[in-house]
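hey can u check if this looks right to u? its 247 residues, i copy pasted from the old doc so theres a chance i mangled smth
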Amino acid sequence: MKILVCISSVPDTTTKIVFTPDGTQLNKQGVQFVINPYDEWYALVRALELKEAKGSGTVTLIHAGPAENDAIIRKGLAIGADDAVRIDFDPADSYAVAEQIAAYANGKGYDLILVGKETIDTNSSLVGGMIAEFMQLPFVSLASKLDVNGTTATLETDIDGGTAVVEASLPAVVSCQKGMAEARIPNMRGIMAARTKPLTVVPAANASALTSAVKYTPSEGRKAVKMIDASNMDELVSLLHNEAKVI
């Protein structure tokens, strides 16, 4: 079984987000970048589990980004991936990233392409579905369980009020969320092995970004909560009319 796992580079969750003075991009100075947790904890680890259960196959990482992200790719190799590919590309938007990955993956015989359900920086949840559309493959979103039997994948995905069990013919694209697998920590043997595992850099195909960021504005953060006595209905109604904001 050949599995391709898409990984993204995102700021660590403890990072204080600061934008450049013109507000057009993230100020990367002093920011620690990590593998997107949904990609690492669920997509990558489940790929490794499927390979281990079968006793054969390969797990390949793919990342669209600059050379400065090689360190996070090496971490994925340390966790257990066999090899990696970096598309030398400045990710413009989700559409362009998906287009790059699909262009690389087409014709290479991958049985599964796994992505995290979303990145924790933009929370857009777009790349997986776009890859599937570019490659004309089945797509299952927000899967919390994935098993493979021959050329059929059986998946569980959350729906309102319950869980749906679906089947998809391979090859397929799956976005993975909590429940898919348990996070793994690289051990010393994996870290040492990652240094010599193949990391192939390929040129970008023609990009077709459809969107661009005009300006980022930091959130106002949480404000103090006003506590209203349960018997003071008039004050509550007044605050809801005059101060509350509709979001």
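The two ends are 46 Å apart (CA to CA).
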